[in-house]
Amino acid sequence: MNVVILAAGQGRRLSPYTDACPKCLLPLGESTFIQFQIALLRRMRLDSIAVITGFRAERVREVCGESVVYFHNAEYDTTNSLHSFMQAGDFARGGCLVLNSDVVLHPDLLEVLLNFSRPNALLVDFESALGEEEMKVVCDADGRVRRISKDIPPREAHGENLGVIRMGAEAAQAVLEEARAAAAAGARNLWVPQGVARTLDRVPFHAVAINGRPWIEVDNLYDLERARGEIYPLCRLDGLRNNERQDRKRNAV
């Protein structure tokens, strides 16, 4: 499966750290956000990775190197993630996994999403404390997503999307069509979930519960502190490998 990492934004709410540094390159322990995601994807044997650049694109290329492909959103300063996703075009249209580059998540969550039986799915935290800022989701009893928007009143929502979405070919093509239509109409400041929302009447998406596994999407300085001090230590790959070795030793005794 192809993977699209949305990394065009600057992240102004994280100023002064992002005044000259893209949000995706902020330090996260011994790594950066995007390097952690790429290492996580490689661990899952997902090697066909595209990074959508924007702010300080040359720095992102220097850090990520030639092991990924690049698409550029030259209008990153006045557009949003749906417009960035549109830049992936043919790379994404056959089906893809889409990640916001500011998400830190436990590796098991990707495995659960990729092994889900339906082609179109998104990770949802059904225990999240919902407010105005969260990308909220409303689902049927069978888990089919009926609404996804930040504008859903928290009391009506069932959970929060993590900013990680899996699309089969039909869904990817439908979302790309919505992105192109929005751009043509001048509606360029939309998120990818808004593109998904515009397809829900004809393309089924299902929610995949995270069941308490750690994750965070970093929007502000409080999130950044929590990501570094609390969430990343639970998700870092070297720590997971150490735990796996300890489990094997215990099982061998």
Description:
The chain is α/β, with parallel strands linked by helices. The chain has a single domain (2-252), classed as Spore Coat Polysaccharide Biosynthesis Protein SpsA, Chain A, CATH 3.90.550. 36% of the residues lie in helices and 22% in strands. The protein contains 9 helices and 13 strands. It has helices spanning 33-43, 57-64, 81-86, 90-93, 107-114, 169-184, 192-197, 221-235, 237-252, and strands spanning 2-6, 27-28, 31-32, 49-53, 69-72, 96-100, 103-105, 121-125, 136-139, 145-149, 159-167, 206-209, 215-217. The strands form 3 sheets. Strands 1, 4, 5, 6, 8, 9, 10, 11 and 12 form a 9-stranded mixed sheet that branches. Strands 2-3 form a two-stranded antiparallel sheet. A hairpin with a 2-residue loop joins β2 and β3. Mean pLDDT is 93; it is low at 240-253.
Which structural class fits the helix and strand makeup? alpha/beta
Oligomer: single chain
The CATH topology is given as Spore Coat Polysaccharide Biosynthesis Protein SpsA, Chain A
Number of strands: 13
Helicity range of the residues?
A: 25-40%
Under the CATH scheme, the architecture is: Alpha-Beta Complex
On the 0 to 100 scale, the average pLDDT is 93
Q: How big is the Rg?
A: 18 Å
